């Protein structure tokens, strides 16, 4: 009897400890943030630890509408995994772990892995915060790993009788969006322990395309050969990031930076154009060694010693837009 009581106390202590750990990540600051829709119409903020991700969604919607946040392998809304906040016909609020089938119809998961934390609502805005396990080892759940994740967003009208059977593919009744994000970037350093950088000695160089008219084809590779400024002492690249015109973020799929190594005596010239065009210079073949890469949803910090480099930017996507 005494042993049984002890085991119950230990079990309760373990459960309480887990809940405290989860609550800590949910109630702490959420340093990562992205506007899914401009002008604050839909905002995602989050934080994470080894076991959980804490999610905060703010949406300008009717307080009775339902809001879903989820994941899938390729950004499809079928065969996807969602946490859905919804209000039933009696005004009761729910957070439900669901998955979509091959037709985009939602079904309630037998094991619920979306843990409600809080909700704040006005007549025009809903802010919902919850926790989800990163790895559940369940067939219908998406396992959250490091790297780029296809995140899904769905807003639907409410109140509803049940979330079971709702569709995430009915274009006439719902709003939906998809973003590729790195949900588990390196933790931001503490300002007190972060190495200081003398900003007066930092030089910034933008390698930009000049108002490119992207062809109306599925994929375009655009090259820019650029000479770096002449340097007379050792320098270090302390940061490398994308510089994409606002409004065209979904157009650029990835960017690569190459080192051009020409044979002695051969001179390279600055050039910009379609990498696959017949008019592309032969010298472009000397630019093959990758020294940096960026992909949609990714952020990199690189530290590289360089002296005399040529850079080349590749831009990919489909439509007639200016980049």
From TrEMBL:
Q: Which domain of life is it from?
A: Eukaryota
UniProt xrefs under PANTHER family: DOPAMINE BETA HYDROXYLASE RELATED, DOPAMINE BETA-HYDROXYLASE
An individual GO BP term: norepinephrine biosynthetic process
Where is the organism placed in the taxonomic lineage, from the top? Eukaryota, Metazoa, Ecdysozoa, Tardigrada, Eutardigrada
Which CDD domains does the record match to this protein? Answer: DOMON_DOH
Cite the InterPro entries for this sequence: Cu2_ascorb_mOase_N (IPR000323), Cu2_ascorb_mOase_N_sf (IPR036939), DBH-like (IPR000945), DOH_DOMON (IPR045266), DOMON_domain (IPR005018), PHM/PNGase_F_dom_sf (IPR008977), Tbh/DBH (IPR028460)
| Record bears the keyword Transmembrane helix | yes
Q: Which co-factor is required?
A: Cu(2+)
List the Pfam families: Cu2_monooxygen (PF01082), DOMON (PF03351)
Give the bilayer topology: Single-pass membrane protein
The name this protein carries in UniProt is DOMON domain-containing protein
Record keywords: Copper, Membrane, Metal-binding, Monooxygenase, Oxidoreductase, Signal, Transmembrane, Transmembrane helix
- Indicate the segments forming the DOMON domain, all copies: 40-156
Signal peptide as annotated in the record? 1-28
